[in-house]
Amino acid sequence: MVEVFQQIINGIAIGGVYVLIALGLTIVFGILGIAHFAHGSVSMFGGYLTFFFVTGWGIPLLLAILLSLLVGMVLGVLIELLAYRPVRDANHINAFIVALGLTMMVEGLNLELFGHEQVVIPTDLTRVFDIGGVTIPELRLYVILAAAFLIFAMTVFVEKTKTGQAIRAVAENRDAAILMGVNVNTIPLVVFAISTALGVCAGVMVGSLFAIAPGIGEGLVVKGFAVLILGGLGSIPGAVVGGLVLGITEALAAGFISSAYKDVIAFVVMISVLLFRPQGLMGKS
Amino acid sequence: MTRNRTFILYGLALLGFVLLPQLLAVKYYLHLSVLALIWVIAAQGQNLIQGYTGYVSIVQAGFMGIGAYSTALMGIHFDLPVWLTIALAPFVTAFFALLTGYPSLRVKGHYFAIVTLAFNMVIFIVLMNFHELTQGEAGITGIPKPGGKDGLFNWRDRETYYYFVLILATLMTGLAALIVRSRIGQILIAIRQNEDLVGAIGIAAWKYKLFAFVTSAMFAGLAGAVYAHYQSFINPEIFGIAQSLDAILAVIIGGSGTIAGPIVGAFFVVFLPEYLRFADSFRLILYGLVLVLATIFMPRGIAGVAKDLLAKLPNRRT
To answer: Any chain B CB within 8 A of the CB of A113?
Structure first.
């Protein structure tokens, strides 16, 4: 039983990362109707960058994360302006193909700047808590808390602020939003900045919990989309539930069935949900 | 463009392909041409679901893998003749496509793409980890060439195999053209243009989508099988998501929703990386850049641009 709790804790940590990725994807999808496939690679870019700032320049971790957030947000804004905006009015397939091309470019950029070696962001959070036999490494606990805080902050931002209101208005009805004086040219930039910031946070978490290596980003973005499909599109609670379900399923599968096939099992869960609830766990039918 | 002119163009293109081995001085280019023709088959399939039906599927290379492994494994374990296993491979692939197509076609647009991509990951993970069957990363070696040693044709000869693949690619291109011109093809195009309307006039769109998905998988299965016997060696490496993206790129660059497009696109995705070799690690960046720029500035692909240019030629009546 202790082993089960142990895996659930592990699952919540990785699930939190999935939720952050999924939130970044869902906000972009809601506003622009784009499946921003490059999101995983951009997130990894943020993780790499933090690693580089910490180990290369000796910048303290928190400051390094802050700098990476800024660079990441600029990159996100540039991606929207240069790549997605030109295909905004074209068929949605085109935007998706652009996203695939962007993925290759960012993956290539990561390889060119940071090399093939896998990297781990060093932290000095090495204490381990022991609660009734379940061990929780300090780092894992902070990751869970940070993810929870970011989810909360994002919810408040979208629900309570003026900009958040504008974002929801554009998502709901673009034309009406224009008539109400919402600037639909700046909203996508804000959305991409937020989305990328969440992605960079997820990238830093992956980089400190596990490791960053070529190809990890693509796997992560697929998980992010799987979370959206599981939870239901455009729903923040759906993304949270979906992310935790996926993370915990994976951790349990890795712990008790087979770690080689954990992703297969996670996808089987996603497909089963699709068969019985095409609208997702929390989606409206 | 008149119908006659189209036929003349395809005839000339076919003649060009027939003469190609005689024109190529470098043997390596012949090898690349065989690969490109195999990709023509896969890309024609991809075009059915992506170009005509409007559903981007990211599992074409995974299905090629199923075709390749099934022909190789049937040969090894059941001792079946090569021709038979090549012919059966598309049907094995179709079985898996049916299994995966039904749940994934319940979601639309981008989400369909993501679900198919997840399938490609699953196929890749299974090929990598199911050692007893697939021998994992090391792959399967010594896959026999079709035909005996003393048959009419020497299949070990690259040129012979080129003509074999050329015939297959021509037949499959013809089959794709027939499908597209049939009533089914017209419904597929209608689904791309307005799926709700198709449903509203009482057509069960999901049946047609499933048909397009399974057919495209069969094209991929055949391409994979032909590839396996050409290379005599397969491993999971070449059936990953990157290669599925190549199939998408072939359709987009060549011209989505045209019959000529996948032919042009397949040669493009096989030859371009060779020419980009000089760029080394920048290759991926350049490749992605080509994809982005082509989608923004040339959304109808090379075939689309060529069609416009041809239409501008004076239409002489003789």
So the answer is: no
